[in-house]
Amino acid sequence: MIHIHRFIFNPFQQNTYLLYPDTKECAIVDPGCYTQEERDELVAFIESNELKPTLLLNTHCHVDHVLGNAFIKGKYNLKLMAHKNEVELLQLAVEHGYMYGFTVDTPPPIDTFIEDGQVINLGKSEILALYVPGHSAGSLAFVCKEEKIVLTGDVLFAGSIGRTDLLGGDYDQLINSIKSKLMPLGDEFLVLSGHGPRTSIGTEALGNPFLEDKL
């Protein structure tokens, strides 16, 4: 069974997730830790729970989701895994940080490209990657089938969807990704988004205003 812990980091109130099965291997998804205090908080949780980080995953590479990539990669000697279509976005992180008032060090490049439908091993557990473009060109969702949980990055939120006016965004593509990849998971799936509270596929299918007449 995969356990999940959420941190809320940086001024964008971004959700960073730790996924860890009973065997204590740990995946760090979208590390947004920016200040030393935030880094210390994440490390303290890992150490107090005796976890062993083995995966560094990005749902996508907007600046608020990658602020801690360099720190995590360096501290735990991990390879950064993301979709190939996020390379350009990651290269613009310093510029985007400047636009929002952040001083951002040049982030490390993607080491391993994740494909649609790829199964990623976390100890004896599995994480399924789904390609869900529209918020960005290479957005991914990470599915824990046994636990009925999906990490959607900034594709789907409680009562909303990701913005599509940034580089790589496409509204019709985003709606199609949600319709064809996320909704078929089933109403019972818990949705953990890149910002804001948790929701479920069923809740969003019934009440998300952006999905009306789209399902």
TrEMBL record:
Segments forming domain Metallo-beta-lactamase: 13-195
SUPFAM superfamilies cross-referenced by the UniProt entry: Metallo-hydrolase/oxidoreductase
CDD domains with a match to the protein in the record: metallo-hydrolase-like_MBL-fold
Keywords attached to this entry: Hydrolase, Metal-binding, Zinc
Entries under Pfam families matching the protein: Lactamase_B
Cofactor: Zn(2+)
Highest rank taxon of the organism: Bacteria
Protein name: Glyoxylase, beta-lactamase superfamily II
